[in-house]
Design brief:
With 608 residues, the protein is α/β, with parallel strands linked by helices. The protein has two domains: 248 residues, ABC transporter type 1, transmembrane domain (ABC transporter transmembrane region fold); 235 residues, Rossmann fold, CATH 3.40.50.300. It is 63% helix and 10% strand. It has 23 helices and ten strands. The strands form two sheets. Strands 6-7-8-3-9-10 form a six-stranded mixed β-sheet, with helices on both faces. Helix 5 packs antiparallel against helix 7 and helix 9 crosses helix 13. The mean pLDDT is 79.
Length: 608
């Protein structure tokens, strides 16, 4: 229940629907009871059990309400039969029963009508909050998580919470009220018989609770398994070429099949345990009904303390308790399953974001002087990737970082954009620590072109204008021209309004990379970060992209993480890195003349 209290905050905007649902449920419970009680006058007329009363009874206070209602009913039946005949009187009673059952069902529909807005509203808002949180969380969080598990939490776990919402509202309002109103009516008809009901409810509750104890734990396992097989699907779709190329279909089929088998077994156990609740509660109800039939029959036939119509109606009321009792047992299972789902959802929603704006963060919309990396240490896990690393990048200069794979080049790009935070030292832009800057304004100063061209299943224009959503067609075309991409985009079926497919797969590697460059050009930031932007390209594509990069870097401060010599030989400063430290720095000519590490890298033509 603790998790549901936290989820309930999402219901606040829809509280009017909750109030209307509660009101309708109150009326539903009331009319459900009255519709059963209304059988008494009909049965009284049918079996001619009425007591003839020809003088209207006098109301003598709340203590005599039961006898007053019985006398008034008998008076009405007596006078109506005398004046209109028994057939007419029976018709009136039937009309009353139909009216009460109609009202009961109208309020039942209205209760469900209003709860729909609450349930779907909470579903929408929880999903939106989770998506927003997923986008805000640092990249480090997702390096430890399966994507499929996150997808499962946003989709199926949130859906489970939505179903549980309906269950919990029935649990606290509708079904208990139905039971309470029914028991009040039963007490009014026969206090002796009603004592049996009070024996039944706690015993039933204890047995049902015992059945459901392990449900939350099993639901947790099932939801984790669902996250796993969704991850397998996501990885399979992303790596189909490799799977087919290495004939690994059978391995992945087995991996997915093993996961779905585990999910199958868990689901069977959960559902079978859940399905046990309804027959258990119904069987216990029938046992009590049997006892009531025996004892009630004794009261009617032997003691003569209860008449036939009242006893039949009483039995109907007793059976009327079974339906809400079953619903409560089912709802309690729903709450246990939902609690497991809510725990998984809240694990993301309540995850602390270490890379967030501080209070009164500096908003910086221009770059004036330089970037300073001062004595920084950084590690992803145990071992430092950068050790006492310092670098000065003046405004308008191009600084290139080179070195073997694992030397820490890409880590610098991650730290400059504050995808990660340093553990020691600081990075400052114009002497302002980037941790003191508003994240939005920090990243607004930077353009990023990565080795992997990350494009989305949308049009060319939508992909290029990500950093400037209000860009005109002309601005997009101008950016494409700078990026040497306009020629091939112009030939697409609908030009810049052509959809480029999932991850831009309708385009070649070089075309995708040039769109990534055009995106950075259109944003027009003062600082450009190029993370091995040409390493995955063929020679012809590289020439076009290199020309595009040169166009883009004019009059800008650029940090180039280099894989190939051609990208960096014109840089103002080349920094050679090894195991997180700077081993050499200077211009291309100075480093070649120095005959050191850089010269060896050039000779091998391997800028990893």
């Amino acid at each position: 229940m603790n998790y549901f209290k936290k989820i309930f905050r999402f219901a606040r905007p829809y509280k009017k629907y909750a109030v209307l649902n509660v009101i309708c449920n109150i009326f539903y419970a009331l009319f459900a009871t009255l519709s059963m009680v209304s059988l008494i006058p009909m049965l009284t007329v049918l079996f001619k059990e009425e007591k003839r009363i020809e003088i209207p009874p006098v109301y003598e206070g709340l203590g005599h309400l039961k006898s007053y209602l019985e006398d008034y009913l008998n008076y009405y039946i007596t006078t109506t039969i005398d004046s209109q005949g028994p057939e007419y009187t029976l018709g009136v009673m039937v009309a009353i029963i139909i009216s009460l059952f109609l009202l009961k069902n109208i309020f039942n529909y209205l209760a469900m009508f209003f709860i729909t807005f609450l349930r779907n509203g909470v579903l929408k808002d929880v999903r939106n909050a989770m998506y927003k949180k997923v986008v805000e969380l640092p990249i480090a969080y997702f390096s430890e998580k399966r994507k499929g598990d996150v997808i499962a939490r946003i989709s199926s776990d949130v859906l489970e919470i939505q179903h549980s919402f309906l269950s919990i509202l029935e649990l606290v309002v509708r079904e208990p009220l139905t039971i309470i109103f029914t028991i009040v009516a039963m007490f009014a008809l026969s206090p002796k018989l009603t004592l049996f009901v009070f024996i039944f409810i706690p015993i039933s509750g204890f047995i049902i609770s015992a059945i459901g104890k392990r449900l939350k734990k099993q639901s947790d396992k099932a939801q984790l398994e669902q996250g796993y097989f969704l991850s397998v699907i996501e990885e399979t779709l992303g790596g189909l070429k490799v799977i087919k190329g290495f004939n690994s279909e059978s391995y992945f089929n087995k991996r997915f099949g093993d996961s779905t088998k585990r999910f199958y077994n868990l689901s069977n156990r959960i559902l079978n345990r859940q399905n046990l609740a309804s027959p258990t509660s119904e069987f216990m109800g029938i046992i009590v009904i049997a006892i009531l039939l025996w004892y009630g029959g004794h009261m009617v036939l032997i003691e003569k303390s209860l008449n036939g119509p009242t006893f039949i109606t009483y039995m109907g009321l007793a059976y009327n308790i079974l339906t809400p009792a079953k619903a409560i047992s089912k709802a309690s299972y729903g709450v246990k399953k939902g609690n497991a789902a809510a725990e998984r959802v809240l694990a993301i929603l309540e995850e602390e974001n270490p890379i967030a704006d501080i209070e009164n963060a500096v908003v910086k919309d221009h770059f004036e002087k330089d970037i300073k990396v001062e004595h920084i240490d950084f590690r992803y896990e145990e071992e430092n990737v950068l050790k006492d690393f310092s670098l000065h990048i003046p405004k308008g200069k191009t600084v290139a970082l080179v070195g073997q794979s694992g030397s820490g080049k890409s880590t610098i790009a991650n730290l400059l954009t504050r995808f990660y935070d340093v553990q020691q030292g600081r990075i400052a832009i114009d002497d302002t620590d980037i941790r003191d800057m508003e994240l939005h304004s920090l990243r607004g100063l930077m353009g990023l072109v990565t080795q992997d061209s990350i494009l989305f299943n949308d049009t060319v224009k939508a992909n290029v204008s990500l950093g400037k959503e209000d860009a005109t067609d002309q601005e997009v075309e101008d950016a494409l021209k700078v990026a040497n991409a306009y020629e091939f985009v112009r030939e697409l079926p609908q030009g810049i309004h052509t959809n480029i497919g999932d991850s831009g797969n309708k385009l070649s590697g070089g075309q995708k990379q040039r769109l990534s460059i055009a995106r950075a050009v259109l944003k027009n930031p003062p600082i450009m970060i190029l993370d091995e932007a040409t390493s995955a390209l063929d020679t012809e594509s590289e020439k076009l992209v290199q020309k595009a990069l040169e166009n883009m870097m004019k009059n800008r401060t650029s940090v180039v993480i280099a894989h190939r010599l051609s990208t960096i030989q014109n840089a103002d400063l080349i920094v050679v890195m090894q195991k997180g430290k700077i081993v050499e720095q200077g211009t291309h000519d100075e480093l070649i003349a120095g005959n050191g590490t850089y010269k060896k890298l050039v000779d091998m033509q391997s800028f990893d």
